[in-house]
Design a protein that fits this description.
With about 375 residues, this protein is of the alpha/beta class. Helices cover about 40% and strands about 10% of the residues. It is built from 14 helices and 12 strands. The strands form 3 sheets. The protein has an 8-stranded parallel sheet with strand order 4-11-10-9-8-7-6-5. A two-stranded antiparallel sheet has the order 1-12. The protein is globular and about 65 Å long.
Length: about 375
Amino acid sequence: MTVPAHEGDHRSAALSIADVALLAADRLPADVRDFVDGGSGDESTQAANRAALDALRPVPRVLGGTGEADTSATLLGSRAALPLAVAPMAYQRLLHPEGELAAARAARDAGVPYVISTLSSFPIEEITAVGGVCWFQLYWLRDRAVVLDLVRRAEAAGCEALVVTVDVPHMGRRLRDVRNGFSLPDDVRAANLAPAPDAGPAAAGRTAAHDRASGASAVATHTALAFDPAIGWDDLAWLRGQTALPLVVKGVLDPRDAARAVGIGAAGVIVSNHGGRQFAAAPPSVTALASVLDEVGGRCAVLLDSGVRGGTDILRALALGADGALCGRPVLWGLAADGEAGVRHVLRLLHTELREALLLSGCPDLAAARDLDVVRL
């Protein structure tokens, strides 16, 4: 894909996120494509995410007397060009040699927060050095000292929020990865994880995710060894007391959990089913959104994750009352299709689509979008 350098340049054939997905599919090895696109179990939760979003129809207003739409937002205290953050995603060097660095540069230029994964394939410090707004996503590891060290590194590197993913006590069984015997190539590593004692510098970031075994996902094996399945609310309360960064809890679907997150001082919750990659029978994230919003009652930010594929999906989230959304796989597709330029193109598409959706629904700004009625088909 040749991404246009500016508006009006028609060299690109990728006119939609779906087009970018097709380009990425052509350029990725089959096992990497499956790792990115696959879900858990029968993958019905992924399909349900999309169907639930498609079933929401914001009702447009007319004769508002405005010819412009302001997409700017404030997310966790930071100004953003649109109410969107790039979701945390592991091992982005699988898609392009510059991985997270390329994606973070594109997010910086698009004016949206970039969420750095615990399992990023470049270190936190190199990614934040790109500039722009970065948040750090934390998986709860078995060694609390390592958890705290990651938090301190994120603070020192200038991350502006801490996003704790809470829906992976155990990695969902992703059948595509199992069938492929998926493992990481040696040059793609968990750059934020230290080597085992006495292992030497060559082992930095090397984990069980590199140890291929027929009929098994090496990434799942690593998760079972590294992640603490017993994480509980007391752990999050302890973490809240360890950092001044805004704490965001990602992976909430039940409003009772949202209430508990607010109770321990969370600045935000992300309503998410992990893009259909965890509990295979989970409800669509957007279906859970309204009850979470009702329970939270404006006491913290609420963002939607899972299944967002275009600017109209961002409008749908706003119309239901969310503060914004996270976008994951489309960014990876852009990265695979054309590196930094591909991600920039994806984020430009999302911005263009949101602006058009606001204009066509009669909304001069995001506040007006939150006042739209929504019909459910």
